[in-house]
Design brief:
This protein has about 70 residues and is mainly α. It has one domain: Winged helix-like DNA-binding domain superfamily/Winged helix DNA-binding domain (Arc Repressor Mutant, subunit A, Orthogonal Bundle). It is about 45% helix and about 5% strand. It is built from four helices and two strands; from the N terminus they run αββααα. Strands 1-2 form a two-stranded antiparallel sheet. The longest helix has 15 residues. The radius of gyration is 13 Å and the shape is globular.
């Protein structure tokens, strides 16, 4: 999984510092939004031909890792 996460890049000078795929101007959120809208991974690849299937997996892994944090209950 760590190999997949290497596909996610963050550069302050690109896309406002938002996480992108392999240094391209395709943000992780763009991929996630398309999947959330109901597109299949194959349709996302057709919509964004510069992407690879591992890029989609990387975006999902990145999002899952970002959301996996402890929640303190008061």
């Amino acid at each position: 999984m760590s190999d997949l996460l290497q596909r996610i890049t963050i550069d302050r000078e690109q896309c406002g510092g938002r996480p992108c795929i392999r240094g391209m101007r395709i943000r992780v959120i763009d991929v996630l939004d398309l999947l959330a809208a109901g597109l299949t991974p194959q349709q996302v690849l057709e919509e964004m031909p510069d992407l690879e299937m591992d890029d989609i997996k990387a975006a999902l892994t990145y999002a899952a890792r970002r959301l996996d944090h402890p929640v303190l209950v008061a």
